[in-house]
Amino acid sequence: MNIGKTTALSAICALSLTGTAGAEEAPFKHVNFGFGFDQGDVSLVGSFGRFNSFASNQGMALDFILLKGRFKKSWPVNGYVGGGIIVTKHNIFYNRLPLGVEYAFAKSWNIYVQLIPNVRMSRPEETDLVTGFGLRFQY
Question: What percent of the chain has pLDDT over 90?
Fold first, then answer.
């Protein structure tokens, strides 16, 4: 990993952690790890309270979940909307707006599916629409 990606990821993590000081939910309340498919590649995925992330050969992303809720109280299905950033392997930065659904199908296990519009920071007219899905285990 080159110095640009390391610096960018460190800055993103630091800024997003400082922005959660008054959040309703502790930022690292629930920790989930697993595998997924995002940005066209198999990736390692994680969920840490109100943060979702992935890392693959194509890049890495960090999303902050802005809204999350159940569709119906008796269903183990949550919907969410987030905002985040992705850094590609070519050092191109995009803003992301993940719209997703997660389903807790067994104790400590969930699957998710999301639709993610991406907007390139240096060229806002360059947009992309990708999907992501995966399997996570809660610790």
Answer: 58
Residue tagged 């066209």 (tokens): 40
State the average pLDDT over residues 73-99: 93
Separation between Cα atoms, residue 14 and residue 51, nearest integer Å: 13
Give the residue extent of every domain in the chain: 3-138
The CATH T-level fold of domain 3-138 is Porin (2.40.160)
Cα of first residue to Cα of last residue in the chain, in angstroms, is: 28
The tokens describing 132, both together, are 């992501």
CA atoms within 13 A on the CB side of 53: 17
Closest C-alpha to 130, from 94, 104, 92, 103: 94
The pLDDT tens digits of the residues spanning 15-69 come to: 444 444 444 455 556 799 999 998 778 999 999 989 999 999 989 999 999 999 9
User: 118 - beta bridge partners?
Assistant: 96, 128
Buried b (16+ CB within 10 A) or exposed e, 95-105: ebbbebebeee
Looking at this protein, which amino acid is placed at residue 100?
G
* pLDDT of 76 strictly over 90: no
CA-based R_g, the chain, Å: 15
